[in-house]
Structure formats: structure tokens, C-alpha cells
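Subject: Protein record for review, amino acid sequence with C-alpha cells
Why sent: The fold of this protein is of interest and is recorded here as C-alpha cells.
Enclosed: The protein record, placed directly beneath this head.
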Amino acid sequence: MKRALAFLLLATTVVAACGGNVAASPTPSATASATATAKPIQVGLVTDVGGLNDKSFNQAANTGRLNAEKDFGLKTSVIESKKQEDYVPNLTTFAQQNYDLVIAVGFLMQNAAWKVAKQFPNVKFAIIDGAPANDAGNTENLPNVANLFFKEQEAGYLVGVIAATMAKNMVGKATHNTVCSMGGIPIPPVDHYIAGYQDAIKTISPTTTILNGYSNDFVDQQKGKEVGLNHISKGCDILFQVAGGSGLGYIAAAKEKGVYAIGVDVDQIDVAPGTVITSAMKRVDKAVYDTSNAVKSGSFKAGDNFFSATNDGIAFGKLDPVVPADAKAAADKALADIKSGAIKPKTDLTVK
């Protein structure tokens, strides 16, 4: 009897171990199948009117998209806006497809981002250089929108140090002690760049003449060139462009007349070798890259996000051989002082 009871207990134990009410572990093939069918994070990028070939702002954003796709295994797409009326429908296209993140490239898209983000509260958005703004132009932080801001004045200050040093010491073709800048449209991100540039020049070389103008366009290169030729006719030796595609015309004017130019947003030294002496860089690519990764990792932060010297969000580009060692040393020191807080570049224009 005891032997029969022991056998019964053993059989019950075996059955329990083999299944019973204990949940079975998934087989390796089932796990692999689930992983293979997991939906990848989708990121959509909508450019400003400058388009992907502006060799500047939009190109940098797209570089960040492509790098995020490669490094994080995301599925990404881009739509180019041809006119401002395209902003809302282009952002809506991605939102309707339930993309995990939709990125609006540029200050001019603030109202479009507000409209679409309010309509699709379950979709995450980001806007470069701005925050959602209602129809009255008032900005409003939304719980599903990351506002990606840069301290452009810091990048402007760095290239201003280089320009001022060269103008003050009459290096190379910089013989008239006059430096210039051109914005596309007078909006905060543009004017912050120029304000920092002017601040450095006034600090380092108070006797240097500063001229400033606007092409009132971010695309038309001819408009930029006309402003450039006008500045050069007034003795300008170094031209700093903050105008996207239109700024390429400003650089073209410098090349045609044999003076120097400074690029913007990305390293533009290859746009006109021997003419572009450096560039004021803001890492739009880093902002797109980091924000895409934040969505994947679950650390997306709505509201204001800042990129500056302290987190490598700004820099100056490669230097042409004409830039002397003392100018580079001064720019390097300025960068360190901005990081430490010893220098706080101005955000208001000295010369309008």
C-alpha cells in the first residue's frame, strides 16, 4: 500500500513539473518571431522651405535623421516643404500614420506645429528653433511637443572672435577693418547668431566697422548675392551669412570679389574653399539625433530643451589656412569661457 502511494505521489510531481498549472516558457523560435514582428520606432522629418539641398539648416536636420536611423534601428522618412502652406499638411501626413515622433524644422513652423500637435495629442512632436504658437503668435508649451532651442549667440561669438582678430590685425585680404553679416529674415534664431558675432567684434576690436543686412529670404541666392555685393562695395572684407540657401549667394559674392566669408549651421568650408574661413555651427543634427533616441529610450522631454556650448550643441567649423594661430587660440579660449560662464554672449543686436 505504501509503495502504491509513493508511486502516485511521484507521478503527480512529474506531471506538475512537466506542465500542470505552471506557465510554459516561450520557445526560442517564438521569442525570435515576436522580436522580428515588433514595430520599429518611426520618425518623420518635415523640412522648412529651404529644402534638403540648402547645405545648411535642413541638411543638418536630415543628417541627424539618417544617423539616428542607422544607429538606433529606427524607420525614418522626410518630406520637403516647398512653401509655407505645406507645413500643416506635411506634418499631418506623418501624424495620421501614427509616427512616434514628427519633427518640424524651423521657427517658421511654430504655428503649424501647434495646430497639428493639438489635433494629434497622442503623437510626439519636436520643433527646431521654436515652440508651438497659436494663431495670435503666443507660444504655448504642449505635453506632446519638445521645443529644441540653441544658444546661437555662442556660435556667433566664436566666429566673431576670429573675424575681429583678423580685421584688427589686417590679416590677408581683411584690409579695411570692416566686417559684415546678413540674415535671411529677422527672427530670433537668426538675430541671436548675429548678436553674438557683433558682441565679439565690439569686445575684441572696438574700432572695427560692422554692417548688417537681410535678404528677406531663406532660399533665393540672388537676393543674398545682392546684399553681399553691396556690403563689399562699402569695404567689407569678412561676410557672415545666416540665411540658409539665400546665404549661399552671400558667400558667392565674397568669392567673386575675392574677400572672406563665414558659413552657418553646418561646416560650410567646402562650399567655397579659400573663401569660407570657418563656420558658426549649431548642431541641429545632434538635436534630431538625441530627440529620436529619447523617444526610443522612453526619455522624451516635452517643453524646452537647450543645446549650447555646455553640451556640445554649438561649435565653430574647420579653419582655412589663412586664419592665424592667435585667432584660433582666441576662439578656443572664448569657447572655454562660454562653457564656464565667464563669457555670456549678447542676444540683442548692436547694429541693425
Observations:
- The first strand starts at residue 42 and ends at 46.
- Residues 1-36 have pLDDT under 50 and may be disordered.
- Residues 39-150+287-292 form a domain with the Rossmann fold fold (CATH 3.40.50.2300).
